[in-house]
Each structure stands twice: as structure tokens, then as C-alpha cells.
Amino acid sequence: MSFSFALDASAHAHLHEQLYHVIRAAILAGKLRPGERLPSMRALALQLNVGRNTVANAFGALASEGYLKTRHGAAAVVTDDLPEEALRLRPSVAQAEVPVSASATASPEISRRGLALLGAPMPFVRGIRGFAFRLGTPALDAFPTTAWERILRRRWSCSSARLLGDVDRCGYAPLREAIADYLSVARGLPTHSDRVIIVAGAQQAFTIVAQLLLDPGDAVWVEDPGYSGSLCAILAAGGVPVPMPVDDRGARLDAALQRAPNARLAVVTPANQFPLGVTMSDALRRDLVAWAPRADAWILEDDYDGEFRYTGTPVPALASLSPERVVYAGTFSKVLSPSLRLGYLVVPDALVDAVAATKAIVANHTAIFEQAVVCDFITSGQFQRHVRRMRVLYGERRESREDAARAELGGVATLRPIQAGIHAILDIDGDADLLASRAATAGIHATPLSAFAVEGRPPDALVLGFAAVPPAEQRRALRALAGLPGAAGGAR
Q1: If I label 439, which of 42, 76, 201, 447 is the partner at 20 to 30 A Cα–Cα?
Q2: For the residues 382-409, what does the mean pLDDT come to?
């Protein structure tokens, strides 16, 4: 075959990539047929006025993908069985002959558990442009891009086949050690790396715990209002949620004890109750950890943003009071990025093997390279520096939000003060559900408090995330929110 074309040295693609695509296209178009010999590397290099390595690289790529057969000292030959033939799926004769019945096109029935999941609250509205006031989103504009890129490049340059292969199902061992060290200092939770299990985010953590600890019909204490992600995991495992109303001291255990004293599991957010922002009192903490062994039950502690407290002293993890009855769940989503999808469980010794086995069934592997990068980020001190910077930044954005609320909302709505976390509650005089829907149309994330209710209806209020919103954007969004139809004082 004579190649009547020239390679373009100024093009974005390398010369060997251009040659690869030309030859592959000729093979697929039938211009080069199976069994046909190509010119020698030397001859083709002279014809195209390129180096012999250019041709060798192109031939090597084509051979590795199954287009060419090459042998030292012999001309390259087009293969008889092209890779497209092996990869192209064709319906079998049996498939083609089976008629499609009317019943096959009907909607199949799903389980009662599936119906419960379909009815579960999923309040996070996707597809809204902009960050005001998206829940659970950190300050992505302040992400430590330079430090992260430096660590990522260094980690990739020294990656080995061992790192790229299978690893311990509990996670990357150095990361587990780094998390154990961090928790002992930052969350008052002394633990050993053997009890740390890496998961693909908090939702997977909830799913693993629920699947392991619950049988269908088991009662589970849940905060009301509370986080819908853990509620969905409970429903998926066949658990029966038992609401615990939340007051200014935290979840009311007395109400739960009256309805289900022998519940199998309690799910709580003691450091910063989601979404009300209440810190569980010391008395309630003691009562809760005392209840678990009496009822032969477990506690799942969701510590989703325990790093960010603006007033008072840090609150230690509940697991520090009862390490053999509390399963602790943490995540990097609220500190670094929600797209990272990386979290961890700290589990009692009695559950380590069982949690690891359950993880192997639910999701056997968590991306190892990202684990290694996060490990380096922690051990280099960058993670702690980032947390300190974000605590200051979020404190500033918290204050600017309060100033903007006073200036833009006036008597339209009242912003509740917060002591910790990256969201706040805005009480309104109107229909919060309707206002949230109109806010979404205006490009504003404003989740109604009712979206997190388990039983009954809470006061009309909106839950607003502020960490990802710079001060000017907060003011603009609050002004727009105040002017929406349905907001007291806004257009009717």
C-alpha cells in the first residue's frame, strides 16, 4: 500500500498518533484487508519523512490493540480477526426469534422495601445552577488546589503496581493510620487503625451499617427532623424508623423509649444535629450510651461536620464515651469536596470483621489512588492547615450572612443563630415549601425544613448552606429570596 498523505508536525496529536489513526481507519474501511502486508518500518519512514521510531510506535499501538501482527525481521500484517469483530455485540438467533409478549412490556412489581424507598424523602434538588444556598457544599473557591496538585503529581510519579492493584478491603493502610491519629487529636476519639474502614462516602457507610445490623422489621431511632440519607439506608435494609423529636438539648430519648424501648439501632448527629444545629447535651449523651448495652443495641454517630465549631469548646465524639457500642461515621466531603466521595467508619472491635465482609459485598473496592492522595494530604499537615483556614473563612461567611440577612430580609424572615456547621435555618412567615420551589426556579438552593421531617410537620423554615457562598453572593441571593412571591413582604 502506498500512503499518499503527509503527517502534520504542527498538529496537536503526535506524529505516531496520526499514523496510528490513518492505518486503523484504512483497516476498518477495508482499504487494508486481513492478511495484507504493510511496508517495512524503514520504507514507510522514508516515504513519510519521519523517524523510524514514529512508525515503530504506531505499529506497536496497532499490534497491542489487535489490528496488526508483527514479528521481528518480518513485515507487519493486518490481522484476520479485528478487535471490533470481537467487541461488537450481535443478537443471538434465539434472542431474535423470541416474541415480545404484552406482559413483558408491563411495569414489573417491586418489593415493599422498594416502594418505601420510592417514598423516602430526598430533599437535595439537583440541576440548579449556582451555589447559593446549596447544602453540604464546602468553600470550593478556597480549595487548596496548588497543594493538592503538588501531592497528586508526586503520588502519581511514585505509584507502583502494588498501589494500582488490589488492596486490603478495609482500605489503604497508611490512610487508616492517618485518620486514627487525626481523630484522637481533633475529635477526642482515641482509636487504632485496625478499627478504621475506608468507604466511598457517608452514604455507603450508612448502607453498610444498616445492612449489617438490621433485620427487616427492626425498630431504629432516628432524629426528627433528621438526615434523609441515613433514613433511606434504614428503609433499604427493611428497618422501621422511630422518630425522636429534637429540642434545644438534642434528640428526645424519652419519646423514643416510650415507642420502641428495644430498638436495634439509634442514628444521631450529636455534635451538630442535622438540620437544626443543636448540640446534644451531656446528660442525653450519657443516657444514650447507657441505653445501648441494656437494649443490646448499637448507635450510629454521624459526625458530618464536627470540625467546624465557632463558639465554645470542641465537642468530643460520642464514640469516645462508648467505643464498643458506637459506630462512628466521618466524611471528607464537607471538608474537601463532595465529589471526592471518600469517608470512613470507626467500628467496635466486635464488628470489624463483619463490617469488612459487608463492605466487600456492598462495594468491594474504594478507589485506592484517591486514598493515597488524601493520606499524603493529611500526613503532610495540609489537611489540618486547610481545616484551620476553613474554620476562619466559614466564621467570616457566617457573620456576613447574618449582616446580609438583617439588611436584606428585615421583617420578612428570621435567621437562627448557629454555633457550628456550614448551614443555618431561616424561619419565614409563609409557605416554606412553596417558597423553596420558587427559589429553585430562580436558581437558589433553599431546602424547606419539612423535607427532613420524619413524622408531622415542622415550622415553616428554609435550610440554607452558606460555606460555598461568598459574601456578595449571599447578599444577592437573600435579596432575591426576599422578593420572591410567597415570602412575607415579597410580591404576592
Answers
A1: 201
A2: 90
